[in-house]
């Protein structure tokens, strides 16, 4: 465990809520989110920024939380997979992943959903190539990607608000 005397307070907004977290400045944001904020939907896959399982949105940009030091999150607006769904229903992307089999074991799913949601927030009708490019930083070992891409295409057709 980190020496409390060396810890800092990280004040940020996570999923719309102001939070103050105590962490070592160089602790991985992934660990702080999981262990202190209790947001375990963000997964660790590789720990090297290669797989996308730990993807979150930070100030609107999709980032790998395993590569972000906690001190960099001070003052940031963060959205994790727990912040994607509305209070009463799943987002269009989440519903499409569920309906069309875009999720298998669940390790990559949070990162895939956030990457797709981030894309659709910028481009509500992407081409299949744009979807492939947006999800390229996320590795899946279960689905073969076809159902994931189909799920994102279906989310674009959903009548409710995106993402």
Describe the protein's architecture and organization.
By secondary structure, this protein is an alpha+beta fold. It folds into 2 domains: 4-83, Roll (Ubiquitin-like (UB roll)), CATH 3.10.20; 92-157, DNA polymerase, domain 1. The protein has 5 helices and 5 strands; from the N terminus they run ββαβββαααα. The protein has helices at residues 29-35, 92-99, 109-122, 128-134, 146-157, and strands spanning 8-14, 17-23, 55-58, 61-64, 77-79. The protein has a 5-stranded mixed β-sheet, with helices on one face. Helix 2 packs across helix 5. The longest helix has 14 residues, at 109-122. The chain starts with 7 loop residues before the first strand and ends in a 6-residue tail after the last helix. The mean pLDDT is 92.
Task: Give a short overview.
This protein has five helices and five strands. It is an alpha+beta fold and 163 residues long.
Looking at this protein, list some descriptive labels.
163 residues; alpha+beta; Ubiquitin-like (UB roll); DNA polymerase, domain 1
Tell me what portion of residues adopts beta-strand conformation. 15-25%
What structural class is derived from the secondary structure elements? alpha+beta
Helical element count? Answer: 5
The CATH architecture name of the largest domain reads Roll
CATH topology of the largest domain: Ubiquitin-like (UB roll)
Radius of gyration: 16 Å
